[in-house]
Write a structure and sequence with these properties.
By secondary structure, the chain is an alpha+beta fold. It is 64% helix and 8% strand.
Length: 193
């Protein structure tokens, strides 16, 4: 009687299949949860275009250069600008960059217009312009630190550590899965007449 047809062989086969299924499930759950967290973070910075304005600086490289110059003394603000808008104040068509839910977030630092526009104007900043957006961002940072950009700060400070740990976990799961698949293949080969 072949090994597979014995009760011990069937039991080992079913346990192995259960382990493989469980590993696949764990791997895909961790993969999708990691991708979901990235998508969720990106959604807070999603970008659409609406209102237009006269544009003096449209080029992303020029905006990035200006952000780096303006916040040379506060490097985390440079990374927040990257996270929020990828250094964009304007769309390719020259419109003020609008993002977030309903397109309510404005410019390179993605300020919620309904909340910040009037406060910025009261301080002499127009968040629809690059200089106004940068000036208001500095003012807000001096008052509140990175709190207004809390969705970006964990991404900036923990991305490498978290993604490396998750990647190592996925590699370990894949190694276990490969090992179980090899065992299953060996079992199937041994069962052939």
């Amino acid at each position: 009687m072949p090994y597979f047809y014995s009760s011990l062989g069937r039991k080992w086969y079913y346990i192995t299949m259960y382990k493989i299924t469980l590993l696949f499930a764990l791997f895909f759950v961790s993969l999708f949860s990691f991708q979901f967290s990235i998508v969720e973070a990106a959604a807070t910075s999603s970008v659409t275009s609406e209102a237009t304005t006269s544009v003096s600086i449209q080029d992303r490289a020029l905006v990035e250069s200006r952000v780096r110059e303006y916040f040379g003394d506060i490097p985390i603000m440079i990374e927040i600008a990257r996270c929020e808008s990828n250094f964009r104040q304007f769309t390719d068509s020259g419109s003020v960059l609008r993002g977030g839910a309903g397109g309510g977030m404005v410019g390179v630092f993605q300020f919620f217009g309904n909340i910040h526009a009037n406060a910025a104007i009261g301080l002499g900043f127009d968040i629809n312009t690059l200089e106004g957006n940068l000036g208001y961002a500095r003012n807000l940072y001096q008052i509140s630190g990175t709190t207004p950009w809390k969705s970006c700060v964990p991404i900036i400070t923990n991305t490498t550590t978290e993604s490396d740990a998750q990647l190592l976990k996925k590699i370990d799961l894949l190694k276990q899965l490969i090992s179980l698949l090899q065992q299953l293949l060996a079992l199937q080969v041994s069962m052939r007449p």
